[in-house]
């Protein structure tokens, strides 16, 4: 995928000088072995780098400052092999700005019941060393993920892998650039928001370019490049006859190829991670980008319609999280419901822009009127999304904070063909059920635009919220409206007070 960062994760082991040089050498060797073996599992998406063990306040502070400053570092894992008194860590943790995973593990898996002596106990006291460490994290209000269990346990490794994928997305957001072609769709509230707060909180910047700048990039595309891309479309997709070379509407396909190539050039030249556009601002364009937006999303660019820059950045982050995983991630909008009591369903889609990474089978390239905007008919990929467990994720600006919102769903094969629907679509069942999920979503102020993914899970979004220090609310199989409303009320109060608590 485009511009995928691969930061290192630095592994810091805490100890102290109470036990003499021999045990410290052993601690160091054990840490190296854990890191080597974790890297060798191939279950982790990022490389872990073993750093020297930390035993003094000066070392710890220097290590945290080094992690902050290193362009290659995307997060730190802490482990307390022995007891590392945590007042030593205050100076370092107070300045640390990297994502943190606290691995509460120990070197040995099994207790050596017959041989255990006090030397063993002194060397292997992570059980309480990790608690001392947890206290100082909690005391300092440090956001972090705690993973507990033996480091060889595949479940433990999977928890680390989830966090790494999120740390990678976080690294991607830091200094990341998103471009808006045009402003928000007129009068729409939920896609608005404070871009200054977003940049301060999440690290990415959103700036506008006139649609004319894009039109100019499109005008610079060569005829030969357009012909080549049209041939690629015919190879990859089921292109309807009228759009194929020699067909009556082939010029429309050529125009889409020009749009795609112009947008690609614009995004690459500006080093943008994603973009938004709006059908209300298309001066210089004859149609809203459909196929182009879909294919750019499939290459990993963030996208959302109608100037919705928050969802655009979220879709990009989810695409970084799911890099190299099967399933796919797309911009999505819940469009309309099946409210038959036999089985409530949501039909999700958008005017054009659903990512083909979620397609079941080969997409068709078709041309139909858009129905709004008064422009030429846009070309688009049409397909059904595949079946499988998925999530919808939304991000809203509530004025005093951002809220992430998740609904766990089960996508299904559409129960009936949709021969007259000229857009890509997904059909899903909400957890725990449609009435509870939709009521909870509405109480949470959830946007109609989402990031929809088969590979990103609630755990990823929880980890993201922890790193960013923002609220996350999750609607899953256990949700009840009564409890969910109370959680939102509690969060309202917490996030009013939390800025005052800060990093203590
Ligand atoms: Mn929309």
Describe the structure.
With 504 residues, the protein is an alpha/beta fold. The chain contains 15 helices and 19 strands. The chain has helices spanning 21-40, 57-69, 90-95, 118-123, 126-139, 154-173, 195-202, 211-219, 223-236, 250-269, 291-298, 309-321, 434-443, 458-468, 481-501, and strands at residues 8-14, 48-50, 73-80, 100-104, 145-148, 177-181, 205-209, 238-239, 274-276, 302-304, 329-338, 345-349, 364-367, 379-382, 388-397, 402-412, 425-430, 449-453, 471-475. A 6-stranded antiparallel beta barrel has the order 11-12-17-16-15-18. Helix 10 crosses helix 11 (291-298). The two termini are 39 Å apart. The mean pLDDT is 96. Residues 305-306, 333, 350, 449 line the site of manganese (II) ion.
């Amino acid at each position: 995928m485009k511009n995928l960062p691969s930061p290192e994760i630095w592994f810091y082991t805490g100890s102290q000088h109470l036990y003499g040089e021999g045990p410290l050498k052993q601690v160091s060797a054990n840490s190296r072995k854990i890191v080597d073996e974790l890297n060798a599992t191939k279950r982790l998406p990022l490389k872990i780098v073993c750093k020297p063990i930390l035993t003094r306040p000066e070392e710890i502070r220097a290590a945290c400052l080094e992690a902050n400053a290193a362009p290659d570092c995307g997060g730190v894992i802490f482990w307390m092999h022995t007891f590392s008194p945590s007042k030593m860590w205050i100076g370092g943790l107070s300045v640390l700005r990297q994502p943190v995973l606290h691995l509460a593990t120990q070197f040995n898996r099994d207790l050596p019941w017959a041989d255990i002596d006090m030397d063993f106990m002194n060397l292997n006291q992570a059980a309480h060393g990790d608690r001392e460490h947890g206290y100082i994290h909690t005391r300092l209000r440090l956001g972090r993920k705690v993973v507990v269990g033996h480091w060889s346990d595949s479940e433990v490794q999977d928890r680390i892998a989830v966090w790494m994928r999120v740390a990678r997305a976080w690294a991607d957001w830091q200094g990341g650039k998103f471009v808006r072609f045009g402003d928000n769709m007129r009068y729409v509230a939920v896609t608005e928001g404070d871009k200054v707060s977003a940049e301060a909180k999440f690290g990415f910047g959103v700036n506008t370019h006139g649609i004319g700048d894009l039109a100019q990039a499109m005008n610079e595309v060569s005829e030969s490049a357009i012909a080549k891309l049209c041939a690629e479309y015919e190879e990859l997709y089921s292109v309807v006859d009228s759009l194929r070379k020699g067909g009556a509407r082939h010029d429309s396909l050529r125009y889409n190829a020009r749009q795609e190539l112009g947008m690609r050039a614009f995004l690459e030249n500006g080093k943008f991670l994603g973009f938004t556009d709006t059908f209300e601002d298309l001066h210089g364009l004859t149609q809203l980008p459909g196929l182009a937006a879909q294919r750019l999303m499939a290459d990993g660019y963030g996208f959302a319609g109608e100037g919705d820059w928050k969802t655009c950045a979220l879709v990009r982050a989810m695409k970084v999280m799911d890099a190299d995983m099967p399933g796919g991630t797309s911009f999505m909008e819940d469009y309309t419901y099946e409210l038959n009591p036999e089985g409530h369903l949501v039909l999700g889609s958008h005017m054009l822009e659903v990512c083909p990474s979620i397609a079941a089978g080969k997409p068709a390239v078709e041309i139909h009127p858009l129905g709004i905007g008064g422009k030429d008919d846009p070309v688009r990929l049409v397909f059904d999304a595949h079946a499988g467990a998925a999530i919808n994720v939304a991000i809203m600006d509530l004025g005093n904070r951002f809220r992430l919102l998740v609904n766990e769903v089960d996508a299904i094969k559409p129960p009936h063909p949709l021969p007259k629907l000229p857009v890509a679509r997904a059909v899903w069942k909400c957890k725990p059920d449609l009435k509870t999920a939709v009521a909870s979503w509405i109480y949470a102020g959830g946007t109609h635009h989402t990031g929809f993914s088969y590979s990103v899970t609630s755990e990823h979004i929880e980890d993201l919220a922890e790193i960013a220090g923002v609220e996350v609310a999750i609607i899953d199989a256990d949700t009840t409206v009564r409890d969910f409303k109370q959680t939102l009320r509690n969060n309202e109060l917490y996030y009013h007070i939390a800025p005052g608590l800060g990093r203590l």
